[in-house]
Amino acid sequence: MTPLISSEWVDEVEHSFEEIKIRTPSLPIQCQVARIMVDLLYNPIVGANLMSASFTHTYLGDEALALTSKHFRVGPLLSLKGLGILHNITIHHNNVEMALDFHVFDN
After folding, report:
1. Which residue pairs, CB below 8 angstroms and at least 24 apart, start in 31-36?
2. What pLDDT digit, counting tens, does each position of 44-57 carry?
3. What is the Cα–Cα distance from 106 to 104, expressed in whole angstroms?
4. The pTM is what?
């Protein structure tokens, strides 16, 4: 899980002109986010942590979003606009606490 917690990912993704894409299957990892057990999808090839706007609103409420210009490619002709970046969201996995940044996309 070390690559998942690298804060440099946000900078790399934000400075890249490419859209975020998932090209390979992701591995489900059970974690606790906002005191709720959830299955997160881990994919080291993506290079970014992603979260849907509905999940953000339901479980994290009105967390402040930093600006982003990124888009998430979900199909050949469909791209979702990035709504912002959540910084330092605490997750727990196997008795390890991590603070991660997530790109939030409309769904």
Report:
1. 31/91, 31/92, 31/93, 32/91, 32/92, 32/93, 33/59, 33/60, 33/89, 33/90, 33/91, 34/59, 34/60
2. 778 788 888 998 99
3. 7
4. 0.77
> pLDDT digit string (tens) for 41-92?
787 778 788 888 998 998 888 888 999 888 888 888 888 889 998 888 888 8
Domain span at residue 70 reads: 2-105
Per-residue pLDDT tens digits for 5-23 = 455 656 666 666 678 787 7
Amino acid code (one letter) for 63? E
Counted domains in the chain: 1
Mean pLDDT of the chain: 81
Produce one character per residue of 5-18: b if its CB has 16 or more CB atoms within 10 Å, e if not: eeeebbeebbeeee
- CATH label of the domain that carries residue 38: 2.40.70.10
The residue written with tokens 């942590």 in the block is 49
The closest of 33, 37, 51 to 90, measured between CA atoms, is 33
